[in-house]
Design goal:
- The structure is a single chain.
- It is built from 19 helices and 33 strands.
- It is α+β, with helices and mostly antiparallel strands.
- The strands form 10 sheets. Strands 1, 2, 23, 24 and 25 form a 5-stranded antiparallel β-sheet that branches. Strands 3-4-5-6 form a 4-stranded antiparallel β-sheet, with no helix packed on it.
């Protein structure tokens, strides 16, 4: 009966919103948790959210420059605004164009502490000031100091600090978190006093005058007052309640009830914080909803009746009922998710919206830990798989194992020693201490399995934890990272994103994850996982931005699209990231966080690099790739490792290759890596066949210039064609009408040489037209080690026909050097000459300086020296009276 009477009194007052609640106009949306609204005298409305200040003039928004997102309150004065920035500890003056004109550090606006005699009790030191609200009257700036529960005054006109008034308490003139303020036409200051659930009035000198409202949960009391606005014409005071989402109305200090729509139903907003009034319209910032709404107000002429305040709870109950609203007689209903008020998100957010503690950068921003407040589609997806880990009973949860805020947080504990990972929080109010990720590990046991093992062979399932990001006491001390950058502590990008180490500088869950305001709906990482930012923050050596960056570092590239389609476990690999190979929490034991159990890590490469993999030598020839899975006759030492097998990791190092190489274990530009198996071939360096000297601007068919490496100018290890021998990579000269005066090229081997030594070829200055030798009806025999012949399959044999390689070895300029390589291959070193030496018939990559001891003498006798010296000359060798070549 009583509540019915109050409702009738409210309707009788004649104050309603002109539009039904369903038609409330959205003034601005897609905002980042707006906290304050303010009109200036020029008719511009400023909206303050996490993106800074947006100025609306004539309905057109413009972003102010340089305004911090941490600013919490705005007050319009003349043609500009004043802002309060608690994180920055300052007050800002913003002009009509949205530019910062003045910055006042709050610490400079405080009066000196009063003198206290030596025998008097010394007062508690004050905390660093946190300006959360601001108001100006006749050039005197009033600002609310949240940290010390007081209001301070500063004369802007003469730049003079005046005084501060108030302290923490519940008596008149005392505050428990003062917040938004305004002045009436008579110069009285109105201040919302949040946890005291009232509005206090002061004169211009800071003397207490009166209080408005009292604590309660019904339509006529204040529960969590935040925003404040005034209709000066009708002398109406509007106060927003950030928990109930209602707007309370007062006239002449008396409660008139809640703002209602035309149907008499209370207007319900989502966490309204800032209010502003102008020309019959009340503007409200719905902080959690991320928008500003406009409510046209219609005021009747009837007298507003003062309501009876007898329903107000006892003062002794207030401090408990501030959160435990379920104990109250009214307003104790569960929310849509069935949560009692004290466990509801709305209750927590009503203080963490910035008024008492600004958690807007975490709560409501980015992705949040799974809770009962998630969308149903997300809940359904989460329950598709059975949870691996048991949910401990010490964390309250629903029968469906869903979590409210109070599963992890409770205001009834301070933790051990009031300690916390995040010093700015002072106390996270966690149910159990979590200095080292303890709380996370209670619910996510499977994510830490083997994570603290110091023996790398016993790790691999989960990313290591407890590694101390500090310089190791000794060189091989276990539990310390080997990368120098990690020995300097947590990477700066992670620090800036809110990540933390344990109290012993060890890696913990919060080093990578953020419970509130993370990235990724399931991972909740501190940094977005797109393009490997999270992994790359710590693993600088192993991370690359693109292919060019990977080559510079000598590592396997990430953040790249494969040149050709690749598959991994029958799934297309459309973009290569760190997680293409590594699984942070789902790896296999004894592996570097790989999802496959492998006896040999080389086999892992095949899963993506099928094109580059070969089962044996024949398969390699068919594919046109360098052989792998090959056993050599002799043992070689490569990068300090002795081996007789050629595998992927014989030449490649995925994460620790030599700089400026394609992830190779050794440099390759001068043939160093290749020379271990292809002994002596490094002699090509510095010769005419070192295309870096003779054809530096000529690219091969893979569009690579010779500066990539002496071997790679002519050879390709992984992109060859099965019809080209020696993994040839040279660019083919356009085939046109053959030179009628040139010999016909029949052998594949010869095509490699003639391709360069012809018109438009790389070696067009050394064109070779005549190179063939009769082979029909002839039996030629030669030492295949000294002057190799080719059989019909173009294999080097003792019997066969003459080809270019019979007389020439393209890697050795000097025949004496070639002879030395047969005796001591490893002793042959690059010539290193800088000046190009003009070739002659007795050098120029010949296997022998002359015909002595060659099979040429067997047929040509005394003519052999002439035939040998002028083999490619038609006039001098092939048109003589006696031509042995026909």
């Amino acid at each position: 009966m009583r509540s019915l009477l109050l409702g009738l009194l409210w309707l009788w007052s004649g104050l309603t919103a002109a539009l039904p609640a369903t038609e409330i106009r959205t003034f601005a949306q897609h905002l980042a948790q707006p906290a304050a609204l303010a009109w200036n005298d020029a008719g511009q409305l400023a909206v303050l959210d996490l993106n800074g200040l947006t100025v609306f003039a004539g309905g057109t928004p413009s972003q102010a420059g340089g305004v911090p997102g941490s600013a919490l309150d705005a007050f319009g004065y003349r043609n500009h605004w004043w802002l309060a920035d608690p994180d920055g500890g300052r007050l800002l003056q913003i002009d009509a164009g949205g530019q910062i004109r003045q910055t006042l550090p709050a610490k400079n606006l405080l009066p000196p502490p009063p003198a206290i005699s030596a025998d008097a009790e010394q007062p508690q030191p004050l905390a660093a000031p946190e300006p959360v609200a601001v108001a100006v009257y006749q050039d005197v700036l009033f600002w609310a100091d949240r940290a010390n529960h007081r209001i301070c005054r500063y004369d802007v006109q003469v730049s003079k600090v005046l005084d501060c008034f108030g302290r923490r308490g519940e008596m008149d003139g005392e505050f428990q978190y003062p917040y938004q303020m305004l002045f009436d036409s008579d110069g009285y200051l109105y201040v919302t006093d949040i946890l005291n659930a009232r509005v206090q009035m002061f004169d211009q000198n800071g003397r207490f005058f009166s209080r408005i409202g009292s604590f309660g949960s019904d339509a006529h009391h204040l529960f969590r007052p935040n925003g404040i606005a005034m209709d000066r014409e009708n002398k109406l005071l509007f106060v927003s309640d950030s928990y109930f989402g209602t707007v309370k109305v007062f006239k002449a200090g008396a409660a008139a009830g809640e703002l209602s729509d035309a149907a008499g139903k209370p207007v319900k907003l989502q966490s309204p914080t800032g209010l502003a009034y102008r020309d019959g319209v009340l503007y409200a910032a719905e902080t959690l909803a991320g928008k500003v709404v406009a409510l046209p107000i219609k005021v009747g002429e009837q007298t507003i009746t003062t309501v009876d305040n007898d329903t107000s709870p006892d003062a002794s109950q207030k401090n408990c009922l501030i959160c435990h609203l379920s104990w109250a007689k009214q307003g104790n209903e569960t929310d849509k998710q069935g949560m009692l008020p004290e466990a509801a998100l709305a209750m927590c957010y009503s203080c963490h919206n910035g008024a008492v503690l600004d958690s807007r950068l975490r709560i409501g921003q980015g992705e949040q830990h799974a809770t009962i407040y998630d969308e149903q589609t997300r809940k359904d997806k989460r329950h598709e798989k059975e949870r691996k880990d048991k949910l401990p009973d010490e964390f309250p949860h629903t029968k469906d194992k869903e979590l409210p805020c109070t599963s992890c947080h409770t205001p009834h504990t301070k933790g051990e020693g009031n300690d916390t990972l995040y010093q700015g929080h002072q106390n996270a109010w966690l149910r159990i201490p979590s200095k080292g990720g303890d709380m996370c590990e209670r619910c996510h046991e499977s994510k830490i399995k083997h994570a603290r093992e110091t023996d790398v062979k016993k790790r691999g399932i989960n990313h290591p934890l407890a590694l101390k990001l500090a310089e190791p006491p000794t060189k091989d001390a276990p539990g310390y990272p080997s990368d120098k950058n990690l020995q300097e502590g947590l990477a700066d990008p992670l620090k800036q994103a809110g990540s933390a180490l344990g109290h012993d500088n060890g890696l913990i869950c919060q080093s990578c994850h953020q419970i509130h305001g993370g990235h990724g709906k399931d991972a909740l990482t501190s940094l977005a996982e797109d393009k490997g930012r999270l992994c790359g923050a710590c693993h600088e050596r192993q991370f690359s931005k693109n292919k060019q960056d990977a080559r510079r570092k000598g590592i396997h590239p990430v953040n790249v699209k494969p040149d050709k389609p690749m598959k991994r476990h029958d799934k297309k690999v459309e973009f290569v990231t760190c997680e293409t190979c590594h699984k942070v929490h789902d790896g296999k034991l004894g592996t570097p966080l790989l999802e496959d159990e492998l006896d040999d890590l080389n086999d892992f490469c095949e899963t993506c690099h099928e094109r580059q993999h070969a089962k044996d030598k024949d398969d390699a020839k068919h594919k046109g790739v360098h052989p792998v899975n090959l056993k050599m006759d002799d043992e070689v030492e490569i990068a300090g490792n002795k081996t007789k097998e050629v595998k992927c990791l014989t030449c490649h190092s995925v994460h620790r290759g030599e700089l400026n190489t394609p992830a190779l274990v050794e440099d390759h530009r001068d043939g160093q890596l290749c020379s271990h198996c292809h002994a002596g071939k490094q002699a090509v360096v510095g010769s005419d066949h070192d295309l870096r000297i003779t054809a530096e601007k000529k690219d091969n068919r893979l569009e690579e210039l010779p500066d990539k490496g002496v071997c790679g100018a002519c050879h390709t290890l992984h992109r060859g064609k099965n019809e080209a021998p020696h993994l040839d990579a040279t660019r083919r000269v356009t085939e046109g009408a053959p030179d009628p005066d040139a010999d016909r090229v029949e052998l594949k081997e010869d095509k490699l040489c003639v391709n360069c030594h012809q018109k438009d070829g790389i070696a067009e200055k050394k064109v070779v037209k005549h190179f063939s030798h009769p082979h029909q009806d002839l039996v030629l025999r030669s030492d295949k080690q000294r002057m190799p012949l080719l059989d019909k399959q173009e294999k080097i044999e003792e019997f066969g026909e003459i080809a270019c390689i019979t007389c020439h070895e393209p890697h050795f300029w000097d025949a004496e050097q070639l002879a030395q390589s047969r005796k001591q291959p490893a002793a042959v070193k690059p010539t290193g000459f800088k000046d190009n030496v003009e070739g002659s018939p007795i050098n120029s990559f010949l296997r022998s300086k002359g015909v002595k001891d060659t099979f040429c003498v067997d047929c040509h006798g005394l003519e052999a020296i002439t035939k040998f010296k002028y083999y490619h000359d038609k006039e001098l060798s092939r048109t003589r009276e006696l031509d042995y070549l026909k």
